[in-house]
């Protein structure tokens, strides 16, 4: 399985953990990986590049869960469908609950083993490729036309599909307000 098309952002304030994760990702063939250590750089990185996977620590910023929710709601960054993994301290029940509510796809309990992040990136690469193949059979378009020209696996979001996504989101919000 080729992992060179997967782009990963690691948001971890601790240098040793961040460096170990980045080294292990690069060793596995994921070349488009970046690490940030503060909230300003995290926000700037998300706005400038549509990452396939964002791994964020709960202690990087007090407002991290609100920011991750804004990614999910397409208010921050170009890709609302990015896979978000949150690393949470297992003794902090409040952070664990907020990670579940913010729309994170995965929650990893600290201390995190970098191998788990690599396994998650491989899982994403495999399932995204399978999703692109399924898209080809249902829509008649090739997987190459769905893949972004910059080389990452995030499929292009056409205006029509983005409008459909917003309509689903507003329908969900109306149902949840009742």
Give a concise summary.
It contains seven helices and five strands; from the N terminus they run βαβαβαβαβααα.
Distance between the termini: 46 Å
Overall pLDDT confidence: 75
Q: What's the Cα radius of gyration?
A: 16 Å
Oligomer description: single chain
Structural class: alpha/beta
What proportion of the residues form beta strands (DSSP E)? 15-25%
Number of helices: 7
Helices and strands, in order, run as: EHEHEHEHEHHH
| Main sheet characteristics | 5 strands, parallel
Order of strands across the biggest sheet? 2-1-3-4-5
Strand segment tally: 5
Commentary on this structure:
The protein is about 50% helix and about 15% strand. It is an alpha/beta fold. Strands 2-1-3-4-5 form a 5-stranded parallel sheet, with helices on both faces. The longest helix is centred in the C-terminal third of the chain and has 26 residues, at about 115-140.
List keywords for this structure.
single chain, 178 residues, alpha/beta, five-stranded parallel beta sheet, globular
List the helices and strands and how they pair.
Layout: E1 7-11, H1 15-27, E2 32-36, H2 39-48, E3 53-57, H3 64-72, E4 83-89, H4 93-101, E5 106-110, H5 114-139, H6 143-146, H7 159-177
Parallel strand pairs: 1-2, 1-3, 3-4, 4-5
Helix pairs in contact: 1-5
